[in-house]
Amino acid sequence: MSETTGASYASAGVDIEAGDLAVELMKKWVKKATRPEVVGGLGGFAGLFDASALKRYERPLLASATDGVGTKVDIARRMGVYDTIGHDLVGMVVDDLVVCGAEPLFMTDYICVGKVYPERVAAIVKGIAEGCVLAGCALVGGETAEHPGLLAADDFDVAGAGTGVVEADRVLGADLIRKGDAVIAMASSGLHSNGYSLVRHVLFDRAGWELDRDVPEFGRTLGEELLEPTKIYSLDCLALTRTAEVHAFSHITGGGLANNLARVIPAGLHASVDRSTWAPGAVFDLVGQLGGVERLELEKTLNMGVGMIAVVPQESVDVALATFADRGVESWVAGEITERGDHAEPVALTGDYSS
Questions:
Q1: How large is the average pLDDT for residues 29-56?
Q2: Which of 199, 242, 280, 338 is the most exposed place for a label (fewest CB within 10 A)?
Q3: Which domain holds residue 246?
Q4: Where does the chain have alpha helices with state H?
């Protein structure tokens, strides 16, 4: 009778030793993304955060958010660059938290791969940790899952969840917005992490462009432009709440400016946003021209150069613009809150983009 080798986890495609090495490589980055309230270190079954720090609040409300970065992970995979995609993940999560005025406290991540390459996983976590530092929150844990047979060896995806806190009587949103408020736009760093299915379809499938193509309008390669990390606004927005009266924020992600801003516009009021107050970056024009994409389709898919909106009373405008300028955030008055007509939409984009 011939001998056969018994099945094992390794023969099924899961490399436990590679996973352990990935954890060792990422530890130094996770240590950089901490806060005084974090208890213990990486390696436990759960991350610990000292909630006694919330005693300074009269009525603390916990805010939670979760997100991923969509098909932008395909660009990172094809470029072989893995240490920026984490910035995108953090930005997508913490900037949803800050919309209600919440300070991001901590995040956890989930990385799913077809095969664990320790250095690659560590690079992804490096980017997440660096993003957490930029957001002022801690990275308290995560999970790396190897899914052979479901994902190809080079395939991966990332997701994350975050928790923040806000004083109950300082929650921002539609209830605070009033007629006459100013709509202040904050510039995006590029595409951020939304609309990449459209972008990839236009640039790769229709135009046949390669990631290493030099694009004069960008001053760099196509791949470098597409991998530009999402701008993280959380600390900038929180700084504004300390220097000026703020009624609402809106994070401009999937759905574009109009749809996301509409989420914080109350019944009876209307936000008029003037396109002529800014010029979208070259990447937005390129996608539109190469794909023959109509402006409305672009605007409901991409951020068109605006990553975050602040709605403030008119008397706070100068302080808001000065606060953002001091923090290196490009911002401008893009519109105003008015009364809504009987059949008007919550948000209208008017005029033509500046050239």
A1: 79
A2: 242
A3: 174-350
A4: 16-32, 72-79, 85-97, 118-135, 196-200, 222-226, 234-243, 256-262, 282-291, 295-299, 317-326
Alpha carbon dihedral 324, 327, 330, 333, in 10-degree steps, equals 0
What's the mean pLDDT in 258-262?
A: 97
Residue 300's region, left for phi above 0, alpha for psi from -120 to 50, else beta, is: alpha
Domain boundary among 144, 167, 190: 167
Question: What is the DSSP code (8-state) at residue 151?
Answer: B
Token pair 């009624």 is found at 247
- Residues 243, 321, single domain; the answer is yes
Give me the residues paired with residue 65 across strands: 162
Neighbour tally for 83: CB within 10 Å: 19
Q: Quote the number of domains for the chain.
A: 2
Q: Which amino acid is at 184?
A: I
The DSSP result for 68-82, as a single string, is E-TTHHHHHHHHT--
Q: Confirm if 92 and 193 have CB atoms less than 8 A apart.
A: yes
Q: List % helix, strand, coil for the chain (3-state, nearest 5).
A: 40, 25, 35
Residues 124 and 270 in one domain: no
Domain membership flag for residue 1: no
Whether the pLDDT of residue 214 is over 80: the answer is: yes
CB 113 within 8 A of CB 146: yes
Q: pTM to 2 decimals?
A: 0.91
To 5 degrees, how large is the angle CA 86–CA 90–CA 96? Answer: 155
Residue 121 maps to which CATH number?
A: 3.30.1330.10
